[in-house]
Amino acid sequence: MKILYLETSSKNCSVAISDDEKLLCLCEEVSENYKQSESLHTFVEWALEGAGLTMKDIEAVSLGKGPGSYTGLRIGAASAKGFCYGLKVPLIAVNSLEGMIEPFLGKKYDYIVPLIDARRMEVYTALYDGETGKELSPTEAKILDETSFGELKDKKVVFAGDGAKKAKEILNLPDAEFKDDVYPSAQYLIKRTIEKIDQKEVEDIAYFEPFYLKDFHGVKKKKSSDSI
Asked: Which segments constitute the Gcp-like domain (predicted)?
């Protein structure tokens, strides 16, 4: 089964294609400016070319559904829905945090804690078993302080994601590992996507919404009179 994967929840605009569990091509770029609107469809074209396929060969679309950047998630969801409608193929959605733990599974960590930066001292996070990948606490928006994750003090734990940098500065966990160069990536959606397809866990394309976790708060523009 040829599957197209889109992951746009973070600074990493990421596209992958697989044949069942075999990764055929990956195109991604981390940008501080969130270039999903500029790069996503170009990356899809490049990934198809790299895999030696055309869009008509795609049999399902998988999306990293968030949490993460509101704008990035909107772009990814709109594109995924468009592809699914046009191709008449199913949509599968995977929690973006689940993909982040994939590189660390089976590496003798007791726990894996993905951390997506949500501005100020807030992060999107969840707790996963380091061996099985089982979710031990649900995804949440968490404000970090000195006592956060104190229950993990004597455990072998890795904090992964762009929220790990500020976590390292404030958490009282000297033995923990912090990997702040980790972002959600389309290549790590493959395993969970195949599981969902086998279990027939597909989305209703018409009603699907990304996993925003919290409401969007835009920046209020100043009126011209405000600057006088």
From this structure: 37-133
